[in-house]
Amino acid sequence: MDPECSRLLPALCAALADPGQPVADDTCLEKLLDWFKSVTEAGSSLQLLRDSPCLVELLLQVPQAPGLSPRVLAFALRLAGLLAAQEACFQFLQGELLSGLFGEAGPLGGAAWMAPTVRSGWIQGLRSLAQHPRALPFLAELGALDTVVALQGDSSLFVASAAGQLLAHILGLALGGPAEGPPGPPACDWPASAQAVVGHLEEALSAATAPRATQALHVLTTTFGHCHRPWTQGLWARLSPLVARLLEKDPVPAAHPLVDLLLSVARSPALSSDRGWWEMAARALGSLRPAHAGPLALGLLTLQDCPQALSAQAFAVLLQPLACVLKAAAQAPAPPGWPAGPEGDAAAVATLLSSRSACVGLLCQTLAHLELLQPLPQRPAPWPQAPLLGAVLTVLRFCNGSAVPAPGSDLGGHLCAVLAGCARVQRAALGLLGALYEDAGPPELVTQVFAVLLDYLRSPDSSPTVLKKAFQAALQWLLSAPTPPGGCAPDPPAQPFLGELLPVLQRRLCSPCWEVRDSSLEFLTQLAGHWAGQAGFRHALLASEVPELAWQLLQDPESYVRASAVTAVGQLASRGLHATPAGPECPGGPQKGVLPELLGVLAADPEGFPRRAAMQVFARWLRDGHAEAADAERFVARVLQAAGRDLDWEVRAQGLELGRAFLERALGRPGPPCPDAAAAPEPAAPAAQALRAACRVGLPEFALRALFDCDRPVARAACALLLLLRDQAAPGLSLPEAGPAVAALEAALQRWRAGEQAQPPGPLEPEAVLAVLRSLDLEGLRGALAESSDHVERNPQSLLQDMLATAGLRGDNEADCY
Amino acid sequence: MKLYCLSGHPTLPCNVLKFKSTTIMLDCGLDMTSTLNFLPLPLVQSPRLSNLPGWSLKDGNVFLDKELKECSGHVFVDSVPEFCLPETELIDLSTVDVILISNYHCMMALPYITEHTGFTGTVYATEPTVQIGRLLMEELVNFIERVPKAQSASVWKNKDVQRLLPSPLKDAVEVSTWRRCYSLQEVNSALSKIQLVGYSQKIELFGAVQVTPLSSGYALGSSNWIIQSHYEKVSYVSGSSLLTTHPQPMDQASLKNSDVLVLTGLTQIPTANPDGMVGEFFSSLALTVRNGGNVLVPCYPSGVIYDLLECLYQYIDSAGLSSIPFYFISPVANSSLEFSQIFAEWLCHNKQAKVYLPEPPFPHAELIQTNKLKHYPSIHGDFSNDFRQPCVVFTGHPSLRFGDVVHFMELWGKSSLNTVIFTEPDFSYLEALAPYQPLAMKCIYCPIDTRLNFIQVSKLLKEVQPLHVVCPEQYTQPPPAQAHRMDLMIDCQPPPMSYRRAEVLALPFKRRYEKIEIMPELADSLVPMEIKPGISLATVSAVLHTKDNKHVLQPPPRPAPPAGGKKRKRVNDDIPDCKVLKPLLSGSIPVEQFVQTLEKHGFSDIKVEDTSKGHIVLLQEAETLIQIEEDSTHIICDNDEMLRVRLRDLVLKFLQKF
């Protein structure tokens, strides 16, 4: 602790212990605790107490002070716990002080206990304190265990949760042993405190009420989740019969935490080899309701070492809702390749599916689980791609009313009614459909996939979010469509889909709903990025009105749409697919190039998003060697000129990115060129030439001004760029003498530093730039900028001063009043 | 209570309810789909239409070729279009006491009912309904009268001839009752019989029932109706909407606790979401105009057009359409746009609030001000000077058989650049387009029907919980084209009763109670006696006076003084005979106490037997039975009147008299 803090601490402690003083807010107290934590972690707590006796004083006074704020009380409890975490300090504080704080004499028995903050502080204090074996007798002496058990049912969720975690911690502390080895002593030889906790858990698990069982399950989940020591085997062996008994009840109580517990056990390396556990998991899959069995099944399937039989059972449970959907639509036995599930489950699932909210919830959950499972290496094999695709398509058809239920199927009729127009299920199903693209499937199913996607893209009833998902899924399926070696067009069925897609896209780009226009443009950008090389696609796109519509959307009233239009137009232009830019307002008028148009956006758009998008396009053009950026110097000069005075810091930062790309290019380190780049990168130039080129485009000026930008990320980027310029572009140049140009530049720098918007002193000469770069302490600046902006305010001294000032304020006011 | 169903069209209903001696007609919609069988009436001479070949029978017989013309494989009647009227034979329409109108679309048959059936009653409707209904009727009359057609085809209607015709003419129903359009004079006469009402206003009909219009949220001034007596309540729901469009929102709460709910006027396109359709409408419009094409929107002069214009107002700039002219052509275009702005009290809350700013509630005022929207009574006159292409034209009639729309179909039909966008759901767009085939113009079908869909109906029914639901038969099964969609039908318990055209339904509840008032002086004279806690009884002797379906108990007249002899007795002075009534008995006989009393009075050898209905007390010595049941007591003793009277008096001791 630095001397200044030591000096301030007594006053602060006195202020905290005084009920009449206003208390600093919670954040300050939290920061103070953080500071104490770092101090105790770095050294001896005992020494801290010896150096700052005011702390002991504070802890002694707190329980005695009536009317003290609950926040200060909670702070004191947590501080005491923090200090007593070290055994030496615990011994020092043990006795009157700790029991005065945590025992009956403390807030436990008083009115302050009503405040959840105090209860929470009490638990957290004990949680911090319980780090060494000596803590256990202390807790037993206090009789803390019963209180903690009772607090599991506290009205405050934070308190209840912390109580559960404390119990798990006490158990871990009591039973702590080697990380590996035999399971440890038999349960009957466990220490008393462990016995007591386990006794509580046993009692709760046997209780008739679900909330008590839930509390016990939470404690066990935490225990098995955090501790993988051998003793956990003994604990599981002792408690698993009680858990198994829960599974026998119908309905299974506390199903959700039970699933969490089972999965926590499954993930524990100490327990997963327990054969009994796998049997229990299998039983749980059978007895839990579908809504809870689903998450368990997913959890089991994501395990690395799940036995084959259990994995098959879990997969069947997971797929059961979709099997019911398929059955409702086809009335046929499950399709080939579909894991068979038990009949009883199917009936339960069918019942669930027939109620609206349960059906939507269960289907969304199942679809989301499958989407998560699909890319995992440990997913079940063989993966039933074809039936799964069929099922997702059936769900999507139920959702748009085109599915025909099996004759006589009540469930089919219900699904028609429940799913028609249900956007939630539509989104989930399209999400899964998109994820299934990797494994493709039989051609006739792929044809159906494209047909259903087209239905969704066409339907006026598709909500904007559904449409976005449909676009994403369509893109994934298109990207996965094989293209023949000639590369002129994708294979069927993607080819006819592409043909149908453009009129739909055209219509969507004219939608009155901006979200639709926006996602259509994003889709167009990605589509063009991937398919631009295919002659068939190029031809169809250029023959359609899509490029022209994208161009027109540069004028959209919605800034997000304009930003997406900028990106799309930039992409189309870089692929030679841009529209003839003659809008309907001036048919036959002079054609306007893409670059002037996008520069216009950068210079004049009132919103930040389109300008940022324009900068990204420019940077990409430069990196890819696009034709518009063929005359790189002129191009960069124009862009930097437009971006230099932008009010949006991201635009300025991207200006620096562009500058960096230019510099690297000039230095002969260009990025990967675009396959159909219009211009080859310039040959590597000597460093001096690069500096001169940078000066010609106004890069140093741009960067130097940005160095004093009020937005730190811009300043950091500028600093990095200038360092690159100094170190790379001019390593060999000797320091020139300070001339008038340098003086003028330094004067400008001074003004920029002062935050003035002064004009630069004309075009900068390389020599002047170099002189300034050498004179600037760029490394120092980089270090200063790397500090977070609140590093000054975050130091403990400042914190203590602030808290004292808050306390002192009250005194001043009183004096004024007097 | 009976319901006479005069129309089979679910959204153009015409039903008659007989309820408590009143005869109430609920709506009188006019089914105009019959006009689809006729050739369009072009405003400007159309060589194409006039040169269509006559239709001849398979055997080459050409006797119908003047009446029927063939176009692209379809046969049309070349005559003034005719309409299919509601059933007029099922019930004597001169007995109808009142007609309740729910919205302006459901009153188009009014002149046929009020002017030609001997109807002498009153019509009730809200003010916007009447005003906009008048506009619709005037437009219709104008459309038809301004293209006079000498020929009136009737031979094809002959049943023997009709059988020989191709579909759909062959299957057209009751063609003999189809009538030509009414005249403006008949419209005025019919509308003069309307009495204006406001929402929630209670209207007494002959003292028997009370009718109340409620906001239905579908159109300006559209209403549902409550028809109730003291003990029965019938709700009539017709053309309602829960969407937030321009009219006042629907009043659902007042429909609660109905004995019968007659449900008509649901959406005709249950699978289309109006929001999605509006999006589709604008996308198609923008695409066409951007390509230099024209857009034609066949529509009614009021209703959805207000919402479309409002969306257009928001969309026009963002879609880069500010330079495109929008034309609204209808003989009543001006009145419709103006009327919409003055019915503030009938509008939704947001629009009402605008009036206080003050601003016009609908933004089409601004569109007109800025010259973006122009309106004309017809294509003749100013319009032909201002007409600029590409443009968007809103005009009628949605059937494409008459009105200015016929001209634009002929004008633009040949170019694939142009688009016709159907937004009105009343007519099949394929049938509407049939006489214009072959057609190069693009056709987009975006039906916008804001009326209740089946999900909304099922929520509504759950909320208002009527005892019985009555609806057109179309709503009790899924639409034929989507037979698997079990969700596209009314699902309620008990299942709804369905009706079809020309059917009479006996509604499933009987009148059980009637409210009778007691005059204060009579009430004052009553002496109630509590026979059970909370229940008191009193005997009443009074005269029941019934007039105008109101029943009043009045004190009985005092016995008249002995007749003077000279004064001639008038019939009205007849005094009902007031016999001296025996007291009424009530209570029950506690058997054990009764037996003790008998024993006290010297009866012995008493046996009590329990029967299913009560008890039998057996006086063996006296050979007498006393049967005590819940509502009767019999003393059976052979010819011993003295004994019987003694026993009776003992029984009476346990009962209360009043």
UniProtKB/TrEMBL annotation, chain B:
<dbReference type="Pfam" id="PF16661">
    <property type="entry name" value="Lactamase_B_6"/>
</dbReference>
<comment type="function">
    <text>Component of the integrator complex, a multiprotein complex that terminates RNA polymerase II (Pol II) transcription in the promoter-proximal region of genes.</text>
</comment>
<dbReference type="InterPro" id="IPR001279">
    <property type="entry name" value="Metallo-B-lactamas"/>
</dbReference>
<feature type="domain" description="Beta-Casp">
    <location>
        <begin position="305"/>
        <end position="433"/>
    </location>
</feature>
<dbReference type="GO" id="GO:0005829">
    <property type="term" value="C:cytosol"/>
</dbReference>
<dbReference type="Pfam" id="PF21382">
    <property type="entry name" value="IntS9_C"/>
</dbReference>
<dbReference type="GO" id="GO:0032039">
    <property type="term" value="C:integrator complex"/>
</dbReference>
<keyword id="KW-0539">Nucleus</keyword>
<dbReference type="InterPro" id="IPR022712">
    <property type="entry name" value="Beta_Casp"/>
</dbReference>
<comment type="similarity">
    <text>Belongs to the metallo-beta-lactamase superfamily. RNA-metabolizing metallo-beta-lactamase-like family. INTS9 subfamily.</text>
</comment>
<dbReference type="GO" id="GO:0034472">
    <property type="term" value="P:snRNA 3'-end processing"/>
</dbReference>
<dbReference type="GO" id="GO:0090287">
    <property type="term" value="P:regulation of cellular response to growth factor stimulus"/>
</dbReference>
<dbReference type="GO" id="GO:0160232">
    <property type="term" value="C:INTAC complex"/>
</dbReference>
<dbReference type="GO" id="GO:0090101">
    <property type="term" value="P:negative regulation of transmembrane receptor protein serine/threonine kinase signaling pathway"/>
</dbReference>
<feature type="region of interest" description="Disordered">
    <location>
        <begin position="550"/>
        <end position="572"/>
    </location>
</feature>
<protein>
    <recommendedName>
        <fullName>Integrator complex subunit 9</fullName>
    </recommendedName>
</protein>
<keyword id="KW-0963">Cytoplasm</keyword>
<dbReference type="InterPro" id="IPR036866">
    <property type="entry name" value="RibonucZ/Hydroxyglut_hydro"/>
</dbReference>
<dbReference type="Pfam" id="PF10996">
    <property type="entry name" value="Beta-Casp"/>
</dbReference>
<dbReference type="InterPro" id="IPR048660">
    <property type="entry name" value="IntS9-like_C"/>
</dbReference>
<dbReference type="GO" id="GO:0160240">
    <property type="term" value="P:RNA polymerase II transcription initiation surveillance"/>
</dbReference>
<dbReference type="InterPro" id="IPR027074">
    <property type="entry name" value="Integrator_9su"/>
</dbReference>
<comment type="subunit">
    <text>Component of the Integrator complex, composed of core subunits INTS1, INTS2, INTS3, INTS4, INTS5, INTS6, INTS7, INTS8, INTS9/RC74, INTS10, INTS11/CPSF3L, INTS12, INTS13, INTS14 and INTS15. The core complex associates with protein phosphatase 2A subunits PPP2CA and PPP2R1A, to form the Integrator-PP2A (INTAC) complex. INTS9 is part of the RNA endonuclease subcomplex, composed of INTS4, INTS9, INTS11 and inositol hexakisphosphate (InsP6). Interacts with WDR73; interaction is required for the assembly of the RNA endonuclease subcomplex in the cytoplasm.</text>
</comment>
